[in-house]
Amino acid sequence: FPGPFTDVVTTNLKLRNPSDRKVCFKVKTTAPRRYCVRPNSGIIDPGSSVIVSVMLQPFDYDPNEKSKHKFMVQTIYAPPNISDMEAVWKEAKPDELMDSKLRCVFEMPNENDKLNDIDASKPAPVQNTSKQDGPMPKPHSVSLNDTETRKLVEECKRLQAEVMKLSEENRHLRDEGLRLRKAAHSDKSGSPTALALRDNGSNSLPSLLVVIAAIFIGFFLGKFIL
């Protein structure tokens, strides 16, 4: 019986009948209060076997105390007609009885076995068993690293500064265009110089917008597509 003995410990006995006749069996113990035997008696057919469960009840184990518990398995050939099993054993003659004696052995697990049990009780690490259709993509092909991110942020700041600068220049040109248009309206003579300046101021606005749009499109195409 392997310890520890803080709970019920069960050991199985396998009884086999190698003869060509039915055999009656009975299991006895010197410590009936310590053990529970199921089944403790029965009949085994020729060439068959039966499993007997011997359950040791919990107790305080003392390694210095030697075990004196013993079991005895008695057998006898079954008579042709069996009506009362108790009567069969009472009427059996001593020379008809066969018996096998077993001595109980208590074993406590050593330290190595305890460590193995603890390791076996730990959950195994979960591995990623999902299959991929192709090779795993490299990390830099999925996301930007820190250096590229800093460069992108700096480039965005530079473009924002240029946009603000162009917006300021565009505002100055728009104000200049409005001033020239007012001057042109006030100039009754309709001089060619005033008309040329007005056309130059009005035509500069679309050109600046085209330049700003081209800068943004070129930047994002270069960073995310190429």
UniProtKB/TrEMBL annotation:
Ranges that cross the membrane: 205-225
Principal cellular location given in the protein's record: other
State the membrane topology.
Single-pass type IV membrane protein
Gene Ontology terms: cellular component: bicellular tight junction; endoplasmic reticulum membrane; plasma membrane
Q: Which GO biological process annotations does it have?
A: neuron projection development
Instruction: Give the keywords, sorted.
Output: Acetylation, Cell junction, Cell membrane, Coiled coil, Disulfide bond, Endoplasmic reticulum, Membrane, Phosphoprotein, Tight junction, Transmembrane, Transmembrane helix
Molecular function as annotated in GO: FFAT motif binding
Query: Which superkingdom does the taxonomy of this entry point to?
Result: Eukaryota
**Can you say where in the cell this protein is located?**
Cell junction, Tight junction; Cell membrane; Endoplasmic reticulum membrane
Coiled-coil residues are 149-176
Residue ranges constituting the MSP domain according to the UniProt record? 1-107
Report the SUPFAM superfamilies cross-referenced here: PapD-like (SSF49354)
Annotated spans, Disordered: 113-143
Record-linked InterPro entries: Ig-like_fold (IPR013783), MSP_dom (IPR000535), PapD-like_sf (IPR008962), VAP (IPR016763)
Its biological purpose:
Endoplasmic reticulum (ER)-anchored protein that mediates the formation of contact sites between the ER and endosomes via interaction with FFAT motif-containing proteins such as STARD3 or WDR44. STARD3-VAPA interaction enables cholesterol transfer from the ER to endosomes. Via interaction with WDR44 participates in neosynthesized protein export. In addition, recruited to the plasma membrane through OSBPL3 binding. The OSBPL3-VAPA complex stimulates RRAS signaling which in turn attenuates integrin beta-1 (ITGB1) activation at the cell surface. With OSBPL3, may regulate ER morphology.
The UniProt entry's sequence similarity note says: Belongs to the VAMP-associated protein (VAP) (TC 9.B.17) family.
UniProt protein name: Vesicle-associated membrane protein-associated protein A
Q: Which organism does this record belong to?
A: Alectura lathami (Australian brush turkey)
